[in-house]
Amino acid sequence: MREKEIDKLKExxxxxxxxxxxxxSPKGLSVDTIKYISKAKNEPExxxxxxxxxxxxxxxxxxxxxxxxxxxKINYQDLYYYSAPKSSQSKPKNLEDLDPKILDTxxxxxxxxxxxxxxxxxxxxxxxxSVSVATTFKDKLNEAGVIFCSISxxxxxxxxxxxxxxxxxxxxxxxxxxxxxxxxxxxxxFVYVPxxxxxxxxLSTYFRINASQTGQFERTLIIADKNSYVSYLEGCTAPxxxxxxxxxxxxxxxxxxxxEIKYSTVQNWYxxxxxxxxGIYNFVTKRGLCKGDHSKISWTQVETGSAxxxxxxxxxxxxxxxxxxxxxxxxxxxxxxxxxxxxxxxIGKNTKSxxxxxxxxxxxxxxxxxxxxxxxxxxxxxxxxTQCDSLLMxxxxxxxxxxxxxxxxxxxxxxxEATTSKISEDQLFYCQQRGLNSEEAVSLIVxxxxxxxxxxxxxxxxxxxxxxxxxxxEGSVG
Amino acid sequence: xxxxxxxxxxxxxxxILNGLNLHIKPGEVHALMGPNGSGKSTLSNILxxxxxxETSGDVFYENKNLFxxxxxxxxxxxxxxAFQYPLEIPGVNNNNFLKTSLNAIxxxxxxxxxxxxxxxxxxxxxxxxxxxxxxxxNRQLNVGFSGGEKKKNEILQMSILQPKxxxxxxxxxxxxxxxxKIVSDGVNSLRDESKSFLIITHYQRLLNYIKPDFxxxxxxxxxxxxxxxxxxxxxxxxxxxxxx
Lengths: 478, 244
Ligand SMILES: Nc1ncnc2c1ncn2[C@@H]1O[C@H](COP(=O)(O)OP(=O)(O)O)[C@@H](O)[C@H]1O
Ligand SMILES: [Mg+2]
Fold this sequence. Notes:
Strand content of chain A: 25-35%
Distance between the termini of chain A: 15 Å
Strand order of the largest sheet of chain A: 4-3-7-9-12-14-17-20-22-24
Structural class of chain B: alpha/beta
Number of strands of chain B: 12
Number of strands of chain A: 24
Radius of gyration of chain B: 18 Å
CATH superfamily of the domain at 2-90 and 163-242 in chain B: P-loop containing nucleotide triphosphate hydrolases
Order of helices and strands of chain B: EEEHEEHEEHHHEHEHEHEEH
Largest sheet of chain B: 6 strands, mixed
Structural class of chain A: alpha/beta
Bound molecules: adenosine-5'-diphosphate, magnesium ion
Number of helices of chain A: 11
Oligomer: heterodimer
Number of helices of chain B: 9
Distance between the termini of chain B: 28 Å
CATH topology of the domain at 2-90 and 163-242 in chain B: Rossmann fold
Shape of chain A: globular
Largest interface: A-B, 26 and 34 residues
């Protein structure tokens, strides 16, 4: 029988660089750098003080190292903490004034910022390196009373909201990367949905790292006031570079009484090449607070990129009857590593959480689910359901499931299910006998495996995510 | 259509096929009968391109070397295998699988792919013809299907894909008499002068519904006897032991 030629791994489609003039902060981490960032953003005094407080704290603490994927020591003095396209200095008021090269970059990424061409009903905030370059559909959102802008703008225009909530879910003392972010965060999105309002469209932020030797430290804050609803999606890509670039974001969500926040991520940072050279370190802190009774926060993540993904989008279920959900797909191929999962902290009565995690490993990759279900003594009738499924392709990759359960209340109901399986040769043969090539067959089987999570994504993105699932595994079958 | 010359096959040093010859012309229906373990599924797997066998001998499909074609290329060129044990694929919708399959084949042939509406029209009609429960179209592919439902699903796929050469590997095993009739109707309605069938079975009863042009007996990896449908009756009476 003829040997099948092994397909060359397809190029990372988003790996191009935009040639653009940047304004950068001085290299390295220092009080001066922090002052530079704060000044560049024209921040009020309190914000600078807050940053400096975080920096003081940072000097006293160490990077954690309990995670499974290890990485070489990061030289924090060799990084740029702020990089902005020069053209953004003059603060373009509308899209016509935006640097055409930036517009073109987003177009190439499939995110046209031109409102007419946008998918119906999705507003976009575009973050390029350290700054937000455009936010679409602002007028329409204004009518509904929804605030959707960059965090920098919110600090200027809505200081009372930002001051009240920033750091209220992820305190500046939280842990190394969260503290680092608090000191040097550059941009990100801000959302406020007023009481009783159902946000009229999907909100989304598209993060792009372009400059080299630059860390991206974005900060996102979403507040859903009483009985409101918002669905938010973030996407991310970066150029192909030999260096490892650090992305350490903080995302805070606050849901007040009866409010619901649905937060979806399609993470496709550059994963490094097939030998494990380069790629993004995606060390992100995401946490939601169900502050009010009957509130709900739902995280959905499709993690296909990055050299290392290390994150645990979590829910603090403080309000009685509040609900937390975590739906995750983590795909690792070649030499990628992921250590991801969630924490569900049950504080209020009758709180419920649900965790569905699908980990897929191929090549030499390593994939860990790590989760915590923590039931406080006063969380009467708390309920958790956890399901962790791992799918392995080949026999050089790894999958691990580490579920911690801290149960301090005897009425609680906790259920955990876990499976590990392999794509069988017979399944592949069956699909191929029906006319699919091996990559189409893998994509079909893996998409089936991930279905419960894919279904959670907003419709417009589900199709994209399905394709991404297939693409991320290209080259994984011989 | 298909010409097999002196086909030998071994798996892990165990020889399974020992010089098999078979010639199937367009429009012919051949039945292949043989005891358990005689190599029937091995033959179907090799013809459809499954990896893991060491083979020698020649197989020509439409006058071209079959072994030059990948698994999916054989499917594109009209070779279909109804599996003895159809696979379950969790999370994959049955309908969607069939549509993906049909469109992959159409695309490879340079035909226009069908959209969801066009496909639905076809599948609904076929499901009705085969008395295939419509609700099963929306279930996960073969997951939790009964043995009979799985086999009927194979025949549904066959009738949608309209293959030139269909290999049915014990499709009749485990079917009740009604299902058997439905499966046979599925085959008979496809039959024409250009389509051929290789029907692997243990039982003569299927051949009451699907009249074969030839019957072959496989034993120890070779065809030891060929004849017309009377041979199936003889087998039913004497058993494989009685045939030399
Ligand atoms: N992958 C394999 N490894 C080892 N032995 C095999 C393998 N596949 C088939 N066999 C053996 O080859 C023989 C023929 O099997 P098979 O073709 O499935 O028979 P049939 O379909 O006629 O019942 C059996 O003895 C079976 O155990
Ligand atoms: Mg068999």
